Amino acid sequence: MAFEGLTERLQNAMRKLRGKGKVSENDLRETMREIRLALLEADVNFTVVKDFVKQVRDRAMGADVLEGLNPAQQIVKIVDEELTKTMGDEAVPLNKSEKIPTIIMMVGLQGAGKTTTAGKLALKLKNEENARPLMIAGDVYRPAAIEQLVQVAAGIDVPVFQLGTDVDPVEIVRQGLAQAEENHNDYVIIDTAGRLQIDEQLMDELANIKDLAHPDEILLTVDAMTGQNAVATAEGFNGKLDVTGVVLTKLDGDTRGGAALSIRAVTGKPIKFIGQGEKMTDLDVFHPDRMASRILG
Ligand code: GDP
């Protein structure tokens, strides 16, 4: 990941304050204008930008920052803290069921990285918790989707429950859960169908799977490279399914950062993981404070 443009512009905006013993309201206004433009250019949601700028300005004006020692440094600190807050403050762990299996339902548009992320997550659980996950192949619309999941799972040595493409996905999930029960799997990861766009039929199907499976976690996978479209997708899925968390994929290819900075504030749902590459090990817990530091460079 490299939010080069954003990092450079934020640094430039704040560099101008450095070396000033005293920062005037005018200086602050100019800095805030540049920060606002930097965020908009990075494709951050307009309302998020507005709220962010207001928060930073209010804090800078309020706490005698302008008159205090090192005003520039204090403003950098405020920007850092507010970026962190905008992205959710704290890392939010995966929801876990008190009794096995913990059921994780993966949802998202086609191509967002759902199947890849399902595999990455299964591997992470295996490696970090010695878990024995079972994956369920619930995308019956593309034969290639099942094949892809089977391949991903084989690469990380995780079993897949599948009934091909001729059985209703809700029924597949029902039987898959029964198998997990029988085999005492501690996690079940359900891969579901994606589409190129949100449509009602898909949402109804996902809602039916949700009603049957009562997942502990509904993880929405969105592609960071699509910027504000990722945010709109997140709103669409969340409105229908009340997701519990977001996985932001392809951050390694994202050069702007708008999705990372907007999704939490717009949807109220935490980004739980970030995908930063195509390898099965390229999945990390999302830490808002670390991301803020990376953005500020
Ligand atoms: P699905 O249709 O949502 O199941 O998407 P896939 O899992 O098939 O992923 C679509 C493409 O995105 C594949 O080529 C993946 O290798 C790629 N991909 C997924 N996650 C990431 C990521 O974090 N970084 C990069 N660079 N590629 C990713």
UniProtKB/TrEMBL annotation:
Catalyzed reaction equations: GTP + H2O = GDP + phosphate + H(+)
Gene Ontology cellular-component terms listed: signal recognition particle
Chain positions recorded as GTP binding sites: 108-115, 191-195, 249-252
Domain of life: Bacteria
Top class in the EC scheme: hydrolase
Record keyword Ribonucleoprotein present: yes
Entry's Gene Ontology BP terms: SRP-dependent cotranslational protein targeting to membrane
Domain SRP54-type proteins GTP-binding intervals: 101-297
Compartment list: Cytoplasm
Keywords noted in UniProt: Cytoplasm, GTP-binding, Hydrolase, Nucleotide-binding, Ribonucleoprotein, RNA-binding, Signal recognition particle
Subunit architecture: Part of the signal recognition particle protein translocation system, which is composed of SRP and FtsY.
Entry similarity comment: Belongs to the GTP-binding SRP family. SRP54 subfamily.
Protein known as: Signal recognition particle protein
Source species: Levilactobacillus koreensis
Shown residues within the full chain: 1 to 297 of 482
